[in-house]
Design brief:
There is one protein chain. The protein has 2 domains: 105 residues, Arc Repressor Mutant, subunit A, CATH 1.10.10; 259 residues, tm_1862 like domain (pyruvate-formate lyase- activating enzyme, Alpha-Beta Horseshoe), CATH 3.80.30.20. It has 17 helices and 18 strands. The protein has a 9-stranded mixed beta sheet with strand order 10-11-9-8-7-6-5-2-12. Strands 1-15-14-13 form a 4-stranded antiparallel beta sheet, with no helix packed on it. Strands 16-18-17 form a 3-stranded antiparallel beta sheet. It binds iron/sulfur cluster. The site of iron/sulfur cluster has 12 residues, from loops.
Length: 426
């Protein structure tokens, strides 16, 4: 078993432990931390569902979506009244831009009540016009993340995005027009599709260099356990045999042009761009159906059932449906995983947060990754090496697959029909 395979196996075991929740009808919300934290807001509607997606999303129906936005604002108000404050906000989906007037209303409530220093919003290529981006920038949005996935028409057709969002050349044109309006325009890409060749990936990289977005996030293809078999029917068996070679091609190609912010996110060299919140935030609150939060050493999840979500909010109750209390060791391991995913850990901050040095809490992990050449010490920092970057990609792939498996089970428990197929990226 190679190191990557061992790491994948180990993290997938850990992830299933992280996401074995206690479920219950009435879970108390966390007390407000004494400092601003990050906020994640989930908008689960899409105009059309991609046949391969395993996010928490449902077909867009306007009355249902309007009722949902109104419930969201109430839920935010409930947390505000408990004393929560937020330094950064991430609005993901689904498609957050599916009902622009509701989104802008939500944004004005957020800026009015919390004055966060940064707001990120996800969108799809069909909403990537200059008018929409200008309105988002005016409403305080500093980072827009658009799901492109690939410019290759063969893959776009196979995953059902060609009909929805257009051909590779069309996507390239839209992206080019969208540049320079918000502070950070991030492009989400996927690699390691079963039918993808190295040549196809290189062509995607060349197109990206022609466009020159501020930031590029390259996710490896991630499939949940439930959807792996169905995925095979669409494009063939998903495996990781080419993943490392593809990742190395990406990092070599971007070298000197883009700098890594995390193991899979790269920003234009010499610029300072906003990171993914999961890397930069120790704690975050999740608002909206199916949203997760990590506050006070506990993971919380809201109900995946939209009717139940609306009903709980109507009753003035928090829509929490699952909680997991981390042990100190689990929490430090989570901080180790996320910190190094963001390329380095400050050892002094780690020690003051966990009241013990890293080597004492995670001695075996530290020894293993040092011997594997994945981490090295630089002064008061533990940094991820170039070799270690791919190990962290493999670990995060398994971690997010664990999240997807939890989503699948939660949707099933909420009586939501599973999507017919399932890649787990936007
Ligand atoms: S991939 Fe994005 S647009 Fe497609 S169904 Fe999933 S969340 Fe919606």
């Amino acid at each position: 078993m190679g190191i990557e395979n061992f790491i994948s196996w180990y993290v997938s075991r850990q992830a299933s432990r992280y996401f074995s929740f206690e479920n219950g009808g009435s879970i108390e919300p966390p007390p407000a931390p004494d400092r601003p934290i990050h906020l994640y807001i989930h908008i689960p509607f899409c105009a059309e569902l991609c046949p391969y997606c395993s996010f928490h999303r449902v077909p867009f129906m306007e009355p249902l979506a309007r009722e949902y936005f109104s419930a969201l604002k109430q839920e935010l108000g409930m947390y505000r009244d408990r004393g929560f404050s937020f330094s950064g906000v991430y609005i993901g989906g689904g498609t957050p831009t599916v009902l622009p007037d509701e989104l802008f209303d939500l944004l004005s409530l957020i800026t009015g009540d919390f004055s966060p220093s940064e707001i990120s919003v996800e969108t799809n290529p069909d909403r990537l016009d200059r008018g929409m981006l200008k309105r988002l920038a005016d409403a305080g949005v500093s980072r827009v993340s658009v799901g492109i996935q690939t410019f290759d028409d063969q893959i776009l057709k196979a995953v059902g995005r060609y009909e929805k969002y257009g051909s590779g050349p069309h996507l390239k044109e839209r992206l080019t027009e969208a540049k320079g309006i918000v502070n950070t325009l991030n492009t989400d890409m996927i690699y390691n599709f079963p039918i993808q060749s190295l040549k196809m990936l290189e062509s995607d990289l060349e197109t990206l260099m022609d466009v020159g977005p501020d930031q590029i996030t390259f996710y490896p293809l991630m499939v949940s356990d439930l959807t792996r078999g169905k995925m095979k029917g669409i494009m063939g068996r998903v495996d990781h045999s080419k993943e490392k070679r593809f990742y190395e091609a990406i990092t070599s190609y971007l070298d000197g042009r883009y700098e890594p912010n995390s193991a899979w996110c790269f920003s234009k060299a010499g610029t300072s761009m906003i990171d993914e919140y999961i890397v930069s935030a120790d704690e975050y609150l999740g608002v909206g159906s199916g949203a997760f939060g990590l506050v006070g050493g506990r993971i919380y999840a809201n109900t995946f059932s939209l009717p139940l979500y609306a009903e709980r909010i109507r009753q003035g109750k928090f829509p929490l449906s699952a909680r997991k209390i981390f042990s100190a060791r689990e929490l430090s391991r989570y901080a180790f995983l996320m910190g190094l995913f963001g390329l380095s850990i400050n050892l002094n901050s780690f020690r003051s947060r966990f009241k013990a040095p890293l080597w004492r809490l995670l001695g075996p992990e530290l020894l293993f990754f040092s011997l594997a050449g994945a981490v090295r010490r630089e002064g008061e920092k533990l940094v991820l090496t170039r070799k270690g970057q791919y190990y962290w990609v493999a670990m995060m792939r398994e971690f997010f697959t664990g999240v997807d498996n939890f989503r699948d089970l939660s949707r099933e428990a909420a009586g939501i029909r599973q999507p017919p197929d399932g890649l787990s990226s936007h």
